């Protein structure tokens, strides 16, 4: 949660843990500095999955498969998840983890750059979880709009950039300026869109949620 670590710690202490498999996978990811969804984002996602009961989810950014396995665990057995990852060092562990989780019949890992994969996808999804290259979020939004069913939901993680989003571009390190600029574009587009209803929530690293008009 952005702003107050003690408050975040308190709120997170209220949530019960995940399954032993997910808890172990989360520990491994944290030990290896692999960026996965934070505890408070997990709680929100678990809630959304229960509330929306999606049948099909597209995830952009699998890393080692934690959030894909998490979504399989907390969605209905009929829900299928496709997840895209382009970093070979993460694809191999992701495949192994999905296999070990017992959810390989529900999770499909698509190898490759989301910029190339997304335009080739034709099926539509109930929910799209955006969690990959931050500078690509405006592009992911366009593709998500095309791929989302009417009434479907977009969730986009890391959109407040640990608070950096509100700084002037000159206060942001030069190497992060493109991300800063594109993330602002993304937030403007998703909130101003006339066919989405969106909210930007300071949960975890900031999560944007948007429902597409029916
Ligand atoms: C924040 S991590 C995803 C974490 C994962 N969703 C979780 O919570 O378990 C972002 C992932 O997106 C991948 N990624 C970045 N750019 C990508 C691209 N253009 N195409 C596909 N994957 C990409 C990175 O390699 C990284 O593993």
* CATH arch. level architecture: 3-Layer(aba) Sandwich
Largest sheet, if any? 7 strands, mixed
Class per helix and strand makeup: alpha/beta
Spatial order of strands in the largest sheet: 3-2-1-4-5-7-6
Q: Beta-sheet strand percentage?
A: 15-25%
The strand count comes to 7
Average pLDDT figure: 95
Instruction: Please give the count of helices.
Output: 8
SSE string, helices as H and strands as E: HHHEHEHEHEHEHEE
Q: What is the share of helical residues?
A: 40-55%
Which distinct ligands sit in these coordinates?
S-adenosylmethionine
According to CATH, what is the topology? Rossmann fold
Could you characterize the architecture of this molecule?
With 214 residues, the chain is an alpha/beta fold. The protein has one domain (5-212): Vaccinia Virus protein VP39 (Rossmann fold, 3-Layer(aba) Sandwich), CATH 3.40.50. Helices cover 42% and strands 21% of the residues. The protein has a seven-stranded mixed sheet, sandwiched between helices. The radius of gyration is 16 Å and the shape is globular. Bound molecules: S-adenosylmethionine. S-adenosylmethionine (SAM) is lined by residues 35-37, 61-63, 66-67, 84-87, 90, 113-115, 131-133, 136. S-adenosylmethionine is lined by residues 35-37, 61-63, 66-67, 84-87, 90, 113-115, 131-133, 136.
């Amino acid at each position: 949660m952005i702003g107050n670590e003690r408050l975040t710690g308190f709120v997170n202490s209220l949530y019960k843990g995940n399954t032993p498999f997910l808890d172990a996978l989360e520990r491994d990811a944290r030990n290896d500095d692999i960026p996965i969804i934070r505890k408070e984002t997990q709680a929100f996602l678990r809630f959304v999955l229960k509330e929306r009961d999606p049948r099909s989810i597209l995830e952009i950014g699998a890393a080692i498969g934690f959030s894909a396995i998490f979504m399989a665990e907390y969605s209905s057995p009929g829900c299928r998840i496709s997840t895209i990852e382009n970093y070979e060092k993460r694809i191999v562990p992701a495949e192994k983890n999905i296999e070990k989780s017992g959810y390989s019949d529900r999770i499909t890992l698509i190898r490759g750059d989301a910029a190339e994969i997304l335009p080739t996808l034709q099926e539509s999804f109930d929910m799209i979880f955006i969690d990959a290259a931050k500078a690509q979020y405006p592009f992911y939004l366009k593709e998500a709009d095309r791929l989302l069913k009417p009434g479907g939901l977009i969730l986009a993680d890391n959109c407040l950039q640990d608070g950096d989003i509100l700084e002037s571009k000159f206060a942001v390190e030069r190497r992060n300026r493109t991300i800063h600029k594109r993330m602002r574009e993304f937030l403007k587009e998703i909130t101003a869109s006339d066919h989405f209803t969106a909210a930007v929530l300071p949960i975890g690293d900031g999560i944007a949620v948007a429902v597409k008009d029916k």
